[in-house]
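Hypothesis: this fold can be encoded by more than one sequence.
Test: take the structure tokens below, design a sequence, compare later.
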């Protein structure tokens, strides 16, 4: 594995195992409005394009459902209170981040998760190891647009040269491509190798320590 100066990470499915809390929040919101719930493995495939799209996939009729905004707000409220119930870093992630910081690397997280939740989760689990954390917000296009990556590079005060993007999904592969960065795809997240290969992934790691040369 090549050594880089700057590492930009996706959050859900890459650094943190968040699926159980996302699924619980989705199903709580659906249950509140007497809508059918979804198995966790189905919700795994709903995740990746931001929380609004997640709920559009979960709610019958999607955004066209007259109760959609109410269900979406119920999800938002519940998730902000329960995002730490079962969420944990994947095995080896903390050790990998510690070693990257020991080597004086720049580290950022860019996510399609709520901005506040992204900030809270990074602060809670990673403390000083993550220099910049950017989530979904109104004035910046979400991934796979390059905006969050470019904003992270700007805040870090570095350019694209010597930077790499690390993620677990097809959205991450496209984000890296749109940002002009090489992409490393992780195999412990929400998508498997065959799916990622079909969506253009070319470099893989199966444990976090493989990111270190």
């Amino acid at each position: 594995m090549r050594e880089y100066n700057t590492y930009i990470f996706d959050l859900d499915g890459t650094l943190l195992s968040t699926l159980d809390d996302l699924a619980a929040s989705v199903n709580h919101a659906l249950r509140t409005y007497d809508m059918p719930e979804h198995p966790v493995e189905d919700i795994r495939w709903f995740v990746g394009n931001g929380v609004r799209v997640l709920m559009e996939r979960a709610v019958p009729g999607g955004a066209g459902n007259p109760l959609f905004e109410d269900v979406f707000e119920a999800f938002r409220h519940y998730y902000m209170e329960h995002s730490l119930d079962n969420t944990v870093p994947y095995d080896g992630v903390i050790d990998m981040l510690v070693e990257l910081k020991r080597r004086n690397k720049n580290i950022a997280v860019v996510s399609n998760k709520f901005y506040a939740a992204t900030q809270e989760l990074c602060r809670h689990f990673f403390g000083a190891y993550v220099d910049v954390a950017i989530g979904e917000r109104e004035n910046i296009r979400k991934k796979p647009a390059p905006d969050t990556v470019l904003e992270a590079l700007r805040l870090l005060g570095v350019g694209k040269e010597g930077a790499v993007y690390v993620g677990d999904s097809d959205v991450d592969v496209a984000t890296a491509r749109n940002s002009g960065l090489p992409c490393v795809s992780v195999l412990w997240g929400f998508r498997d190798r065959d799916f990622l290969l079909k969506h253009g992934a070319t470099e893989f790691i199966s444990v976090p320590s493989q990111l270190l040369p």
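The longest helix spans residues 68-82. Residues 6-17+88-211 form a domain with the Rossmann fold fold (CATH 3.40.50.1000).
Hypothesis status: open.
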